[in-house]
Amino acid sequence: MFKQMKGFTIGFITCAIIGATSFAFAQSADVNISAILSSTIKMKLNGTDFTPKETDGSDIKPIMYNGRTYLPVRCLGEALNIPIDWEDATKTVHIGGKSESVPITNDKLYTTGLATIFTKDAQLLTAPGKTYKWGIVNDEPVSYISCSCSFNPGCKYKYLKASIYLDDNKQNPIKLDFEKNNFGGEIIKTITINPGETYELNLEITGINKVCVSTGLIGSDTITKLIIGEPLFSNK
User: pTM (2 decimals)?
Assistant: First the structure.
């Protein structure tokens, strides 16, 4: 099934963009064409009726030109959970997301949750043998409640990476749940961190809009310092 879907993806998206840009390679500039906006073509995605949508929810009609069918890359990428990004400076469509890593350092990429803050304060971000340049920490000792935060990849990246440190003042290990799109949603991964330990996170997030992170109930124990150090999104 995956191989079939992969073949469908490559063929459909290639038709959607490479065919449309072939003139640009033959000519020194874009070329105007005449095409048909079709109301009769029907589409199925993995056997299910598929109607591509604009961001406002309206239907997208396919274009027919020179014996080929064309659809916007973004609507196909979203349907197939493939990150799509447009780089205006170079007029480049990135299929599968951009190759570079993106540090999570602003509130568009990260949302403050319960008992956590984003910081670049070296004092708050110091662990044994390492001081992180940026990260997420609990803003005060935490007990009887959960620590939480969320990351917002927007379906553009393949991985969420970070170094997660739990200080050794805590008596017991903690578990962190990584949930898909909302708190209480599908658990992508659960990790266990022992006091004094650093866990290197490399979480697969392809096709995920939001990653919610929480420790769950702590009980009678207390977290003095939990650091999610230098989190970033990456496609490699």
Answer: 0.64
